[in-house]
């Protein structure tokens, strides 16, 4: 139970950062940053690299909001940390989580664009076997990015924590997607 609680505490700043990002999208804040795609409009094999939904606004807001959420969690004494850095350097820790989130989504977005899957769309019915795999990757891509980024920064996560985070992500990520559908920001949950 301790590992699951630690995973939930670690996930909290990412969830809060994601919800703040949803609010920024809904309120149409920072429109000039939203107009700048992370791929700069680049194409590969005639298709956009990441697509129009991956913007500078998303990257900036996710990193900043997750950093602030991690700082708030630390200062409120929320739960047991997985690693000391969570409480010793909460802004840095949150920025790593936010950056990992964004970087983890990019390879998946690039692969889906090359498969002809539009941003926010399901795998095409011409490839029904891809749908479960695309769904699973959509739920976990950001987590892979977080695990890699925090490890590169010198804070590798214990394997049991990563396993618990997979379980948390498979529950929380679809719930946030459902919230986005209810708010009219997405057309589907999975």
Which characteristics define this entry?
190 residues; mainly alpha; two-stranded antiparallel ribbon; 7 helices; 2 strands
What does this protein look like?
- The chain is mainly α.
- It has one domain.
- The chain has 7 helices and 2 strands.
- It has helices at 2-27, 31-34, 56-75, 85-88, 90-114, 130-152, 159-182, and strands at 43-44, 47-48.
- The protein has a two-stranded antiparallel sheet with strand order 1-2.
- A hairpin with a 2-residue loop joins strand 1 and strand 2 (47-48).
- The radius of gyration is 17 Å and the shape is globular.
- The two termini are 29 Å apart.
- The mean pLDDT is 91.
Helical residues, percent = 55-70%
Task: Give the class from helix and strand content and strand pairing.
Answer: mainly alpha
As a whole number of angstroms, the C-alpha radius of gyration is: 17 Å
Q: Name the shape in a single word.
A: globular
- Strand content of the residues, in percent? under 5%
Number of domains: 1
Secondary-structure element order, N to C:
HHEEHHHHH
Counting DSSP E segments of at least 2 residues, the number of strands comes to: 2
Most strands sheet? 2 strands, antiparallel
Mean pLDDT score: 91
Number of helices: 7
Unreliable stretches: none
Oligomeric form: single chain
């Amino acid at each position: 139970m301790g590992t699951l609680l630690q995973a939930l505490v670690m996930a909290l700043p990412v969830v809060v950062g994601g919800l703040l990002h949803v609010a920024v999208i809904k309120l149409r804040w920072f429109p000039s940053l939203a107009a700048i795609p992370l791929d700069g409009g680049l194409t590969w094999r005639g298709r956009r690299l990441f697509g129009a939904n991956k913007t500078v606004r998303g990257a900036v807001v996710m990193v900043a909001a997750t950093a602030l959420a991690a700082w708030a969690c630390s200062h409120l004494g929320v739960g047991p940390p997985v690693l000391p850095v969570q409480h010793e350097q909460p802004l840095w820790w949150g920025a790593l989580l936010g950056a990992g989130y964004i970087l983890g989504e990019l390879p998946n977005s690039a692969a889906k664009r090359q498969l002809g899957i539009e941003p926010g769309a399901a795998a095409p019915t011409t490839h029904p076997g891809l749908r479960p795999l695309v769904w699973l990757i959509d739920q976990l891509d950001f987590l892979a990015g977080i695990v890699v980024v925090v490890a590169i920064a010198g804070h590798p996560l214990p394997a049991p924590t990563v396993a618990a985070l997979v379980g948390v992500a498979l529950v929380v990520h679809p719930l946030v997607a459902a919230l986005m559908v209810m708010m009219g920001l997405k057309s589907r949950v999975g």
